[in-house]
Amino acid sequence: MSSSRPAIIWFRRDLRLADNATLLAAAASGRPVVACFIFDERSESLGSAGRWWLHHSLTALRNNLAERGVRLILSRASAVDTLEMLVQAVDAQTVYATAVPTPEGSLLEQSVADRLAPAGVRLHLYGGTVLFDHQSLKTLQGTPYRVFTPFWKACLQAGVSSEPCAPPHRLRSHSASIDSDALDDWGLVPDRPNWARDFQPFWAPGEVGAHARLDAFVGEGLRDYAELRDRPDLDGTSRLSPHLHFGELGPRQVWHRVQTEIALRAASARGGEAFLRELGWREFSYYLLRHWPTLPSEPFRPAFESFPWRDDELALRSWQRGQTGYPIVDAGMRQLWSRGWMHNRVRMVVASFLVKHLLLPWRSGAAWFADTLVDADVANNSASWQWVAGCGADAAPYFRIFNPITQGKKFDPAGDYVRRWVPELAGLSTKYLHEPWTAPSRDLADAGIRLGHDYPRPIVDHAAARQRALRAFDAIRG
Ligand SMILES: Cc1cc2nc3c(=O)[nH]c(=O)nc-3n(C[C@H](O)[C@H](O)[C@H](O)COP(=O)(O)OP(=O)(O)OC[C@H]3O[C@@H](n4cnc5c(N)ncnc54)[C@H](O)[C@@H]3O)c2cc1C
User: Fold this and answer.
1) pLDDT in tens, 238-257
2) Which domains does the chain have, with CATH numbers?
3) Pick the catalytic residue: 10, 281, 319, 421?
4) Is 213's C-beta closer than 6 angstroms to any atom of ligand 1?
5) How confident is the model at residue 456 (pLDDT cuts 50, 70, 90)?
6) Is 279 a pocket residue for ligand 1 (Cβ < 6 Å)?
7) For residue 56, which of 285, 300, 242, 309 has the smallest C-alpha distance?
8) How distant, in Å, are the alpha carbons of 136, 297, 366, 370, 428 from that of 294?
9) How far is CA 203 from CA 224, 284, 426, 473, in A?
């Protein structure tokens, strides 16, 4: 079909040209297109680290589109108003967008569709953010899955059949001159202070950077992923999470790339399957959020509504700043601040420490992660926090309390991770590194450490905190 009435492409969390069904549909319509991105904070939340990423990702998308002769219009107003205005300005007949499968995303889609409908304009929504059809996946009883393994089995059975698609050969750009915000005016990148200064050398936001990361990981990391994925001292995971969150890479592209690698090299099979299973956890988080939209705010297990969480601003701040006195926890929190990312094993340890050792609400931890992670994602973040807290679907039992000392020794055996992120402990021998308060004063002095001055003493005693957490759990069990 070809028509001269233009179409609007509304970019959202699909900041890519390849394997983008929305873009392909718009191109196939033959209509001239107007491409836009709307940063509507009233409708969709984005934390500070995510804003930094968004700035760079939009810069990359804008340049990629410009190479194809298409200008990216930017607006920071209401998405509903902006789309209505654009439709009127160019007399568009359709709006194409990729669905954002979150409660906020669906609500916005409904509002846009309702606003445009009276003018006879349709909002066409496409998939691509997740791999499977979460609406149709159900247990034999017809209820949504609550447990990961059978869910994942059903996904694997359903299969990911179609191959990823190339970017459209040609996009016809609409010629009208339309006002656009200047990206720099949005102030997404911090200055004074520029707390994101260490992000730049570590990340390459945008579609090109996403593919480079995928290539590097498949080439170097996939084979040993199953063995190394739990080691924060090694570079054993893909670090694709922010690229996936912003849709610079679709999960289907990752899926097929890994499957191809497994087919080519048998040695990659174990690592590849372990890796795809992690993508499965991403699917499960989105699935849970779809079927339980209160996941970000309410405990999945209602018994936890009466959990006796503490209110302790000082303890929360010590945790946020990496000053708890437990080296593996502090290393993780400082990695998060410095890089906008933290290794998954350490995310579990620090989250467990907050909710069990400090008895602070998981929502406070989730809020801090939402603000400081470049991959902050309402589905993964809420599901993971609830999982660690013991109140989520298929969650670790509450009484399984991570010991931050043994976790440190097991997953950072030579102490490289702690030494890197907690440099004030760097001179301490590995024997005491994960529990510096047990080091003889001589060893501390030789390493130049005065506990309580250069590095804090533990803000809680592990054994006592564990007992307190178990008592609190007993209280809700009745
Ligand atoms: C308390 C807590 C909060 C978390 N918050 C987020 C968040 O806001 N955003 C986010 O993307 N992930 C979150 N995770 C999940 C996980 O830690 C990250 O996805 C992972 O560390 C990202 O690094 P990677 O890309 O190198 O992962 P890899 O190990 O290379 O995994 C590949 C991909 O699989 C997905 N994935 C991996 N582990 C998980 C998991 N446990 N749950 C869901 N998806 C997973 C991610 O998309 C990841 O990019 C959280 C985990 C915990 C314990």
Assistant:
1) 999 999 999 999 999 999 99
2) 7-129 (3.40.50.620), 131-162+207-291 (1.25.40.80), 302-477 (1.10.579.10)
3) 281
4) no
5) very high
6) yes
7) 242
8) 20, 6, 14, 16, 46
9) 22, 26, 26, 40
Whether 309 is a known active-site residue: answer yes
Three-state SS for 243? helix
Q: What is the pLDDT of residue 315?
A: 98
CA end-to-end distance (rounded Å), the chain: 65
Query: Is residue 375 lining ligand 1, measured as CB closer than 6 Å?
Result: yes
Q: Is 344 a residue of the active site?
A: yes
DSSP β-bridge partners for residue 26: none
Structure token pair of residue 247: 């849709």
**pLDDT of residue 1 exceeding 60:** no
Neighbours of 144 (CB within 10 A): 16
The encoded tokens of residue 120 equal 């006879």
Q: Which residues contact 159 (CB under 8 A, 6 or more apart)?
A: none
pLDDT tens, 25-58?
999 999 999 999 999 998 888 999 999 999 999 9
> 94 by DSSP, 3-state: which?
strand
Going by C-alpha positions, the residue among 119, 91, 87, 71 that lies closest to residue 3 is 91
pTM comes to: 0.97
